[in-house]
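user: can you give me the structure for this one chain? tokens are fine.
assistant: on it. calling the predictor now.
[tool input]
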Amino acid sequence: MASLPALWHLGQQWLAHGHLALALSIIWSLYLVLVGAWILLQRRAPVATIGWLLSMAVLPVVGLLVYFVFGPRRFRRQRLKRLRSRRKARMRRQSLAHLRDRAAQAPARLQQLVRLVSNATQLPLSTAQEVQLLVGGARTFDAIVHAIGQAQHHVHLEYYIFEPDTTGQRVLQALTERAQAGVQVRLLVDALGSKRLGRRHYQALLDAGAEVALFHPPKLGRRLRPVINFRTHRKIVVIDGTLGFTGGVNITDTEDKRLQADPCHAYHDIHLRLQGPVVSWLQHVFLEDWAYALDYRHPAMPQDFAALLPPQDDGPALAQIMASGPDSPLEAIHRVFVDACYAAHQRLWLATPYFVPTEAALLALTSAALRGVDVRVLVPERSDSLLVTCAARSYFDELLECGVKVYLYQKRMLHAKTMVVDDMLGMVGTANFDTRSFRLNYEVCALVYTPVFAQQLADQFSRDLAQAERIFEHRPQPLPQRLGDAVARLFSPLL
């Protein structure tokens, strides 16, 4: 066998005789074959596969690096890690057995939708003793701070954005007071969304005996941004296992018009207060996220599940928690949004700050309108992302042609994420109507299956329409805007 120095010398002679171009061509061809086969075996959507193949061919080194860090394999690593944590932190199946045994029964019309949520999320139908709609950050923060002050055993919070501003300090102070009183406080925040919240802001909370964890913290320093995908976009508060909050409101002054010099600068948002057995499943979602963030190695992992999941009397309202994220390939929230569109008979009213639908979601919305359902979509006139605003505008003509009524919320940033389906379903949660919420982030929604709540949510939607402008076909648009909208739409899968 020839030695390595001999082979190296032979290669140099071969290249010296003008074969450099041929050598590069061979290397390039082998690279394309190997990398192409690797990507094809991922069995992703055809358009995504073609896009990755082209990026690898045009930008071989950069494309390969981006694919390894942000592509499907990164997605798979996060999913596997999350599943390992979930298997360990299933809160001991016997602790959940009594909850599953008491799962409520859905009426005939709701059975398929309820079964879809249950099978896609492993979160069964439950009940609520009370369901209260909270409109605006001011009302939401007042309710949450009051509930924290009444806590006797534990307070659990999980937030995408937790700012160290006036609102954040107010909540931290309330948490610190309860921790000093012996209440167990656990705070989980997303490392990217809450990047301005430093240890100095919650040191007093830690000193009082509380626990704070970061979801997907950066590996190379606090100020370096972690990956933009696979974030917890959830907003969860659980008090003593019996009272819960979820919805669109983050912990930030931006949500409270009382703290804005101009009230029009405050977001318009909607949150939900829940009381009763359904809160146990909101608790379940939090505890899985807590275990995942700590990687199940922390000595203070909660073990007193009987106190975390106390028995509660059933309530009159049928309700269900729905959670989804990149740890599951089922895309539960995406499926339920689409299925709810097909299940609608009379009305389908959707409010979302970011409207960048998938093909399946767009088809479901337009199909509902074409079969005579009153479909209304409420979005902000200008969101806090110019790219998303432009991308959303690019879908309006398709919606209008099929009979969907599109409204632009004026003056303030609409941040509510709600859906009303006929008189059977009212949905409030953290998920936007876009790919990021459907596939890339961890989201949670509350589904309430009662005519009373559906009408309450519909009434609020109607009040919001009074602050909105309806758009119609044949809107005159300058060429630069149409071109910008079309370009923004190209990035829809990434928004």
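assistant: here you go. The longest strand covers residues 317-324. The chain has 18 helices and 18 strands.
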